[in-house]
């Protein structure tokens, strides 16, 4: 049995907004959205954690690199549970690194570090956690992408119009860097 709660972000959510209520979510039953070629499932976010961290998964096929971006106030964790994911990171000194992460591998991206990733094998999955002093960004996925009720990857990539990317930094801690070049590719 799945309970549904309305939130300010969606008509129905499987996650209670009240931070004082414990809850359990069955596999895949969080708030889902398609963005690019991926399925993002949010299990906890700002409403549940008093804006201190979020917890989500990203599943996707082998594909293109996700656009370079940074989070000014948020640290991000990448923990691979299936497949392989190539993580690209540039530190504050401009030093770039690239690492292939496979199941059990962990990547940490400090706030203000440009980063990106690419699924290297079909049906790869990353567990993500983001935490920062001021806010979380998990509702970015359904606002830039498309909220979905069903499980599964999108039939076609969900690529937002370029002008929609510009609206993201005002509401969410995500700033895209369309001119960023990875020297490590």
TrEMBL record:
It holds the Pfam family Cupin_2. This is Quercetin 2,3-dioxygenase. Its EC number is 1.13.11.24. The keyword Lyase does not apply. Residues 60-119 form the Cupin type-2 domain. Keywords: Dioxygenase, Oxidoreductase. GO terms for molecular function: quercetin 2,3-dioxygenase activity.
